[in-house]
Design a protein that fits this description.
The chain has helices at residues 3-18, 22-25, 30-46, 65-76, 81-84, 91-101, 104-116, 237-273, 286-316, 322-347, 358-365, 375-388; strands at 121-124, 141-145, 148-159, 166-172, 184-190, 196-201, 215-226, 275-277, 280-281. The longest helix has 37 residues, at 237-273. It contains twelve helices and nine strands. Helices cover 49% and strands 15% of the residues. The protein has 395 residues and is α+β, with helices and mostly antiparallel strands. It is globular, with a radius of gyration of 22 Å. It has a four-stranded antiparallel beta sheet, with no helix packed on it. It folds into three domains: 3-102, Orthogonal Bundle (Butyryl-Coa Dehydrogenase, subunit A, domain 1); 121-231, Butyryl-CoA Dehydrogenase, subunit A, domain 2; 238-388, Butyryl-CoA Dehydrogenase, subunit A, domain 3. Helix 10 (322-347) packs antiparallel against helix 12.
């Protein structure tokens, strides 16, 4: 099928299979959701829509970043859209770097089961004791002893750790190196490794999390893994991270736009159906009309910005698209927060209940302005890039 047919099939699946599940599935434990989600995953496979982001060589649909961006918008309307198609974070990013940097042995053990949906994975980078805005200052250290990495450290917000088979861990493998950007490596650590302690799932705005929806705190107590578990070469951790984060931000931003569109629809439906006085609908009020107009403009602008960035990644690569990636990361996150907030406000008290998807969006996606680089970090990076052309010398 061609790309337009793929989009139609995916959109129909999301609306017919996922929207109807949400009142039941959103607020139950992960273990109770899993049988139904696994059933839906098998349906996706049978329709030939599995792994839209992965090349055909590895069993996917082979979509470009720009095309997968459009698919991400459709899937983003439901919290389980990406999961059902096996293109969810953090697994999608782990697949991409295993394909590009993994050895044949690593692919056999970790990549292929991940592609089939037989296992899940996680990515451990964020630390409670160090600012995420400066990843050079990591406290998780790996020493080299007798052909092994021996890992000591403390991570948290390790999304999806609960139930994952392995973690890709960002750590310092050369603490005495002269180049701070070559001190770090990414190392594959099975979650069954001796000395790897699961501390807790971090509760997010009252949501305890579990399974793929978890954000774990973990500790490494002299965890040993072979030196052959490194991804790429020792010291390439930041290079690999940038390869992962560029396309990942495209997918995140388009997922957010999918949420925006659904929140916008709910807001407009509420505006024309809610009577505030006899014969007067909420949508007749100028404040509501202003919100609707502003949200429509900002959603459209977000989509165009992301499409531009995706096309440039496809043609120029992620490194040369850094400014565009920073723009979409902070702009789309802010638009998401505004649109969801306006939609909640238009719904009144109902907006903060779980009778609509809006409260779930707000609870889980406020962090959009923090993870993968806080707004302020991306704005600073963008401004520095711009002002460098005007000969501003940063001290």
């Amino acid at each position: 099928m061609d790309f337009e047919e793929i989009k139609k099939e995916i959109e129909a699946f999301v609306k017919e299979e996922l929207f109807s599940l949400e009142p039941w599935i959103l607020n139950i434990e992960w273990e109770k959701k899993l049988p139904k989600l696994n059933e839906l995953r098998e349906k996706v496979k049978s329709k030939g829509l599995w792994l839209p982001q992965i090349s055909k060589e590895y069993g996917g649909l082979g979509l470009t970043n720009a095309e997968h961006g459009e698919v991400s918008e459709i899937l983003g309307a439901s919290p389980y859209g990406h999961y059902c198609f096996n293109c969810q974070a953090p697994d999608a990013g782990n697949m991409e770097i295993l394909i590009e940097f993994g050895t044949d042995e690593q692919k056999e053990i970790y990549l292929y089961p991940l592609l089939k949906g037989e296992i899940r994975s996680c990515f451990a980078m964020t630390e409670p004791d160090h600012a995420g805005s400066n990843p050079i200052k990591m406290g998780t250290i790996a020493s080299k002893e007798n052909g092994n990495y021996v890992i000591k450290g403390h991570k948290w917000f390790t999304s999806g750790f609960d139930g994952a088979s392995f973690a890709i861990v960002m750590l310092v493998s050369d603490p005495n190196g002269s180049d701070p950007h070559k001190k770090a490596s990414q190392v594959i650590v099975p979650t069954s490794s001796q000395g790897l302690e699961f501390v807790r799932n971090v509760s997010i705005m009252g949501h305890p999390g579990g399974g793929w929806e978890s954000h774990a705190e973990i500790k490494f107590h002299d965890v040993k893994v072979p030196l052959t578990n490194v991804l790429g070469a020792d010291g390439e951790g930041f290079t690999i991270a940038q390869k992962r984060l560029g396309p990942g931000r495209i997918h995140h931003c388009m997922r957010w736009i999918g949420m925006c569109e659904r929140a916008f629809d709910l807001m407009c439906e509420r505006a024309v159906s809610r009577e505030i006085s006899e014969g007067v609908m909420l949508g007749e009020k100028q404040t509501i009309q202003n919100w609707i107009s502003e949200c429509r403009a900002e959603i459209n602008a977000s989509r165009l910005l992301v499409q531009d960035a995706a096309n440039k990644i496809d043609t120029l690569g992620a490194y040369k698209t850094r400014s565009e990636i920073s723009i979409i990361k902070f702009y789309c996150a802010q638009v998401l927060q505004k649109v969801v907030d306006c939609a909640i406000q238009v719904h009144g008290a109902k907006g903060v209940t779980d009778d609509t998807i809006l409260a779930s969006y707000y609870r889980h996606e406020r962090a959009a302005r923090i993870y993968d680089g806080a707004d302020e970090v991306h704005k600073s990076r963008l401004a520095r890039s711009i002002l460098k052309k005007y000969k501003l010398d940063y001290k």
